[in-house]
Amino acid sequence: MIVIRCPYCNEQRTEEELSYGGEANIVRAIEPDTLSDTEWTDYLFMRNNPKGLLQEQWCCAAGCGQWFKIERHTVTHEITEVIRFDQQFSCKKDS
Ligand SMILES: [Zn+2]
Predict the structure, then answer these.
(1) Phi-psi sector, 25: left (phi>0), alpha (psi -120 to 50), beta
(2) pLDDT of residue 92
(3) What's the 83 CA to ligand 1 centre distance in angstroms?
(4) Burial class (CB in 10 A: 0-12, 13-18, 19+), 71
(5) What is the Å distance from ligand 1's center to 42 Cα?
(6) 82 CA to middle of ligand 1, Å?
(7) Which GO terms describe its biological process (predicted)?
(8) How many angstroms separate the alpha carbon of residue 1 from the centre of ligand 1?
(9) How far is the CA of 60 from the centre of ligand 1 (A)?
(10) How many Å lie between the centroid of ligand 1 and the Cα of residue 56?
(11) What CA–CA distance (Å, rounded) separates 53 from 57?
């Protein structure tokens, strides 16, 4: 079971109380009309699926409703960092 402390309301929530928002830091194209079909497809569907650390976005759905970001190991579910949505991860993987 994944348990995360929300960085906004500071309440500890289980994964049933949270909503998973997928990989974090997916950058929306400034001018989507200029993208090729391949670039648009990559933006919409292509995500990292590592067996290791992944930066994700979650919503405190049963609590304050705020979105925040975490870094989680996809095998062990160890959470190495929890930050507010407007913050940057401290590790080198953040881009
Ligand atoms: Zn919260």
Answers:
(1) left
(2) 58
(3) 12
(4) buried
(5) 31
(6) 12
(7) tetrahydrofolate metabolic process
(8) 18
(9) 5
(10) 16
(11) 13
Q: How many CA atoms lie within 13 A of 30 on its CB side?
A: 0
Instruction: Compute the distance from residue 88 Cα to the ligand 1 centre, in Å.
Output: 18
- Taking the centre of ligand 1 as the mean of its atom positions, its distance from the CA of residue 80, in whole angstroms, is 18
Q: φ, ψ for residue 48 (rounded to 5)?
A: -70, 145
Contact in structure between 69 and 6 (CB atoms under 8 Å) = no
Listed as ranges, residues in the chain with pLDDT below 70 are 92-95
Options 3.70.10.10, 3.40.220.10, 3.30.230.10, 3.30.2270.10; CATH of 1-26+46-95: 3.30.2270.10
- Per-residue model confidence (pLDDT) at position 29: 86
